[in-house]
Design goal:
binds NADP nicotinamide-adenine-dinucleotide phosphate; 296 residues; Rossmann fold
Length: 296
């Protein structure tokens, strides 16, 4: 690896498989030095080996569980010591927040089915919902808070948050909540935290009513709506950075039980495009794959 000052360094979360691994591969192809992270060391190291077997050199592994502040702190120390700065943060790690009824997948034909067809066999529980919000939303937030000081040392800092088409405001039935989340100029971290708490309270007390919250894939959808809203708050606070969120497409990975329509190569294109935006590029925006879209 070259001199740390001249290298462009990217950190990708949840990169042992799926879209995250492919984002690493495509960034490496563009000459970026990649810190591939995964919560499981064996899975992460195996992924790095795969990339090296494919010819990549400038890739290193570090363990990272975005739900664990100590793990984030240890990664931060590593990057600070090794590279003294960070150029690109891709918040990719995510979970679905649900389980499927055990027998649901037998005889299930992933090619002929859409994720929505699994709704009747999805099991939503409070613990899983809490975990989903903690990983998808608070994981993203913890990573941004920890790494913004290192991104501020970059000439061209970029943050890419993986959201979803389910992270658009249209999935929230309540007009009051939608109005607050839409008001990007006045929305604050504190207010967003309050909305999240009331969602989790309603979930715990079985009060996920159809006129307030999404009733299927509830925690996943709501966690991604929160990621989208948080992206706007951050972009407003850090005007010198390009901070955007992206729906990668409906991709064939474990999180969709492989029902997706796009390959990981196609799914990684939007996130990689946003990671490599030229200076003065858009910020605080929602992208649908590689196209500028709306939060609605
Ligand atoms: N696939 C799609 O159609 C689609 C559509 C919209 C948005 N997205 C978003 O795209 C992102 C990537 O998803 P994917 O499709 O590639 O799914 P995937 O193959 O299931 O990959 C998810 C990755 O996140 C990691 N992860 C989960 N919890 C973590 C934690 N606490 N700390 C660190 N890593 C963690 C997983 O690690 P383990 O292997 O250890 O579990 C895995 O590497 C997610 O944010 C997802 O919501 C995907």
């Amino acid at each position: 690896m070259g001199d740390a000052c001249t290298l462009r360094i990217a950190l990708v979360t949840g990169a042992n498989k799926g879209i995250g691994l492919e984002i690493c591969r495509q960034l490496l192809e563009k000459g970026i030095t990649v810190v591939l992270t995964a919560r499981d060391e064996t899975r992460g190291k195996t992924a790095v080996r795969k990339l090296r077997d494919g010819g990549a050199k400038d890739v290193v592994f570090h363990q990272l569980d975005v739900a664990d502040p100590a793990s984030i702190a240890s990664l931060k120390e590593f990057i600070q010591h090794q590279f003294q700065k960070l150029d690109i943060l891709v918040n990719n790690a995510g979970v679905s927040g649900i389980e499927l009824e055990a027998e649901a997948l037998s005889g299930f034909n992933k090619k002929e089915n859409h994720l929505e067809s699994l709704v009747p066999v999805m099991i939503q529980q409070h613990e899983k919902a809490k975990e989903c919000i903690n990983i998808n939303f608070y994981g993203t937030k913890r990573m941004c808070e920890a790494f913004i000081p290192l991104l501020q040392l970059s000439q061209s800092p970029r943050i890419v948050n993986l959201t979803s088409v389910y992270g658009k405001l249209k999935v929230i039935p309540s007009e009051t909540i939608k109005r607050e989340l839409r008001d990007a100029d006045n929305l604050t971290d504190g207010r967003l935290d309050n909305i999240i708490s009331s969602f989790l309270d309603d979930f715990r007390t079985n009060n996920v009513l159809k006129d307030t919250w999404p009733t299927d894939l509830s925690a996943y959808k709501f966690s991604k709506v929160a990621v989208s809203a948080y992206t706007r708050i951050l972009a407003r606070k850090h005007e010198k950075m390009c901070i955007n969120c992206v729906h990668p497409g409906y991709v064939i990975t474990d999180i969709t039980w492989n029902t997706g329509k796009l390959t990981v190569e196609e799914g990684a294109k939007g996130p990689v495009m946003l990671a490599l935006l030229p200076d003065g590029g858009p910020s605080g925006q929602f992208y649908f794959e590689t196209t500028l879209s709306s939060f609605e």
